[in-house]
Design a protein that fits this description.
mainly beta, 2 helices, Immunoglobulin-like, 6-stranded antiparallel sheet, 2 domains, elongated, 6-stranded mixed sheet
């Protein structure tokens, strides 16, 4: 009798756990209203929302939450969306933070006002700062729910982590523990690559510094990063693993932080890295120029005849990063395609094997 009861109890517990997991997963998949872009300099201090769903969303009972680290200040502030505020499917809404409400407000724009009375709980707000800060989008204006993860629709922290209530965003699946997006400067915005939402190792990786802010429009268009070919290590290598090539951010016009990184380099033994760029991938049947190493089958994945430049850099421990700022590129470069591949070898006489490894290749398409 007791064993039967325990078995039935176990079934109930497992069913409840499965229901909870399903509910959580559904909630994350159903996150439709996103914090999309933030700007914080001069009079351009605003927060943009984007509705990626196929239906209009009523924001009448929602609120925006600001977190700061300013000494002697409340550090937590809430602003309620006005009654009747809606966000159409595929639409954008820009909230001008801590700014006086003008006599005429254009469609798709809201102004919070600039007195404590315009904000919830009489706390007022602080101006948005681009060095550090955090914002939450909450599905409530109820004071009793401001410490609950259940009302958090979205979150972003930049410049640092550890803001008050950030842990609630982590519980809600809207943020990643210890993560933060980059600080951004005057004339720049903190923008989101919305197609990546919920697909990356960290929620902070969905955000990038955009030197060409795009209010009321998608932040990314035309950009691509495609990996092809196979990372390969020569027999007898001293690498930490296959030399995997990737980018640290999106190849966007104006992205001064863009860089290539090769993982698993050693950074010792006179080790260097050759990063080659070409205008095309290797054609079928292209013979490899690499010296043959018994037991290895490494080859180039980019076209030898289309090489447009090479860089030779010393390697670093665990990973080697090569900055390639796109900050000065003009609109004429949108759509440019470039193929890259790296080879790691020892810059020492009579070293063996003749190279340590060859990375996969990347094809990038510059976007805006």
């Amino acid at each position: 009798m007791m064993n039967g009861t325990l078995r039935r109890l176990g079934v109930v517990i497992r069913a409840a756990a499965a229901t909870a997991l399903l509910t959580t997963s559904t909630a994350l998949l159903g996150q439709n209203v996103l914090l999309n872009e933030v700007r914080a300099d001069g009079n351009e201090r605003w927060i943009e929302l984007y509705n990626r769903s196929g239906a209009t969303v009523d924001l009448s009972q929602w609120s925006l939450h600001q977190c700061t680290t300013t000494a002697g200040m409340p550090r937590n502030y809430w602003w309620p969306f006005p009654i009747g505020t809606t966000l159409a499917a595929g639409g954008f809404l820009r909230v001008h933070w801590d700014q006086a409400i003008p006599a005429s407000v254009p469609p798709g724009e809201l102004y919070t006002g600039d007195t404590p009375y315009h904000f919830m709980f009489g706390l007022g707000a602080e101006p948005l700062g681009n060095t550090a800060g955090a914002l939450g989008l909450l599905r409530s204006q109820n004071n009793l729910l401001m410490n609950s993860a259940t009302v958090i629709e979205d979150w972003v922290s930049w410049g640092q982590s550890g803001f008050q209530r950030e842990s609630l965003a982590v519980q809600a699946g809207a943020w990643t523990t210890g993560a933060f997006a980059a600080s951004f400067g005057n004339g720049e915005s903190l923008a989101r690559n919305t197609p990546t939402v919920g697909t990356l190792a960290s929620r902070a990786m969905e955000w990038f510094v955009d030197s060409t802010p795009t209010p009321s429009a998608q932040n990314v268009s035309g950009v691509q990063v495609v990996s092809y070919g196979q990372a390969c290590m020569a027999t007898g290598n001293h690498l930490f693993g296959p030399p995997t090539l990737h980018t640290n951010s999106l190849p966007l016009i104006g992205n001064s932080q863009f860089a290539y990184t090769v993982d698993n380099t050693t950074g010792v033994f006179g080790e260097v890295m050759l990063l080659a760029f070409a205008g095309a991938a290797a054609p079928p049947g292209q013979p490899s120029l690499l010296p043959y190493v018994t037991g290895s089958n490494c080859s180039e994945a980019i076209a030898q005849s289309a090489i447009v430049g090479v860089l030779l850099v010393p390697t670093q421990v665990l990973g080697t990063t090569v900055p390639m700022s796109l900050g000065n590129l003009g609109p004429a470069f949108v759509g440019l395609q470039l193929h890259a591949q790296a080879m790691v070898f020892d810059w020492l006489p009579n070293s063996w094997p003749p190279y340590q490894g060859v990375s996969n290749a990347l094809r990038i398409t510059v976007g805006q």
